[in-house]
Amino acid sequence: MQFSQFPLDPRLLRGLDLAQYVTCTPVQEATLQAVLEHGKDVYAQSQTGTGKTAAFLIATFWHLLKPENHDKFALILAPTRELVVQIEKEARTLGQFLKFPMAAIYGGVSIERQRQSLLRKPRIIVATPGRLQDFINQQTISLKNAGVLVIDEADRLFDMGFHKDLLRIVKMLPAPQQRLNLLFSATLNNKVGQLAWEHMNNPESIVIKSEYPTVEGISQHLFHVSRSEKMILLLAVLKKENPESAIIFSNTKAGARQISLRLQRAGYNCALIEGNIPQKKRLDIIAKMKAGKIKFLAATDVASRGIHIPNLSLVINFDLPDDAENYVHRIGRTARGTQTTGKAISFACERFVYNLSSIEKLIKKKISVTIIDDALKQIIDDILKENPDQGAISEKTMSGTPQKSSQQGKAYTRKPHGDRRNQDKRHDHDRRQPATGGSKSTGSKYPPRSPREENNHTPRQGYQGRTHSSTSSQRDYKRPNSQERPSGQNSRRESHEPQQRAPRTASTHSHQRQQRANTASRGDVPSKHARSTEASRSRGEQSHGTHDANSQKQKNILNFISKLFNKEGE
């Protein structure tokens, strides 16, 4: 079915003709029939590259051109900055004769310029939820006058954690019956379905997909290769395929940077897109790639959605993605729109080969394994001659044998550090024990603790500081007898049995009270430190007095005993 068969505004049809939109794709035809002919909301599942952007833009323009909606605007939500820029550019192309003011709202660029664009009352607002929420909080924009809500890549919005922001934004809009609602997603899940049925007005469900979730025109190939051999194989594949343009995807930012630097060193014109690249530079790189000034692009999954590069002939998965859905979006960068064919090559190393089963389960298809032929082998040999520091390709890689990790289960799995620490952890008491004896049951060089030590945590033998008893809160101090102290040694460290200090008596307290009274009568009340010092001195004198009395008593007893023995001898 052709676009001219729908009741569209002539100015919009003129824009479609200039953009070379003549025949509708299945998702475009189904969407326009539901909206233009039946006036219904649309809840559509359609894979990337099937023309869904043009589908919801044409329906949006048609709705805003109604006389009763002359003061309404459309809000289009997308998950990434790249996708926002692409949608806004497509909207300007299709609606270039409608003269609708438009605004693209996303992070990473000047917020003041975007604020000025919102103050001009745009009819089309394309935004990421995060930056839009900032403007709502600043009261720069009100959503009460929205006439159209479009949610693109709804599954990706939820994956990126925009669920709460999305719900807050939707609740600020007019009731679902007072607006046109269009929701598009490459994959469907419970959250997407719940959003559709709670915040849309009895939408018509549209499912447009081929037998496999990937585009049928994409030729998919797989190499089993070790991690150390992937870079050499990448150079060989690029030399053999000689594509006009290609995107090489890596799972990590560091991996993408390494690919970019290695290709540049090999003489290729390669750019880099990853999360740390500023948005202005990203847009400049994409524009240069579309213009043919850049041939290759090394990227992370930030570029797997929202980037449309015409006639992209090759996609290489340097790493198999951890999320199977990202595989669909990665290879969907090729064979888009009028381009009917494309090629995707994936490297399965020992680290990411475990992601292959979930990918094949999603696409319901086995990816054909490619064996290195003679032509590719000759290219590899030539590269190795130019780079003697690189190792030769193994026989496993040559034969297409899957790479297996030396560890059982998933590669690079490690036990938590906490388990290792708990195994080596010992009680402080055990560390203080001498390395003699040992435990026969555990094989440890440390002797086992007694039950008493387990319960009371008794310090090691020879420690004569303060001891804490589990049955008493009193503190016992060592006060050795001055007559028993060896000269030049600390008897506290030599003695093993702490002694009780002399208890305070009534006479001691009476003596202290008398001293304070005498001091007060003289008019010089001592300070707290002075009183404390005086009390300590008083306790010391009392202790020495008690000690002298005990010594004299012992002498009297000894004299009495000696006299008894002398009398018996007589």
Question: Could you walk me through the main structural features you see in this protein, from its secondary elements to its overall organization?
Answer:
With 570 residues, the chain is an alpha/beta fold. 43% of the residues lie in helices and 12% in strands. The chain has 22 helices and 14 strands. The chain has helices at 10-18, 26-37, 52-64, 81-94, 111-119, 129-137, 154-159, 163-171, 190-199, 230-241, 253-265, 279-290, 324-331, 356-363, 374-386, 395-399, 417-424, 428-432, 451-456, 491-494, 506-521, 528-569, and strands at residues 42-46, 73-77, 102-105, 124-127, 146-151, 180-185, 204-208, 218-224, 246-249, 270-273, 296-299, 314-317, 342-348, 368-369. The protein has a seven-stranded parallel sheet with strand order 3-4-2-5-6-1-7, sandwiched between helices. Strands 10-11-9-12-13-8-14 form a seven-stranded parallel sheet, sandwiched between helices. Strand 3, helix 5 and strand 4 (124-127) form a beta-alpha-beta unit. Belongs to the DEAD box helicase family. This is DEAD/DEAH box helicase.
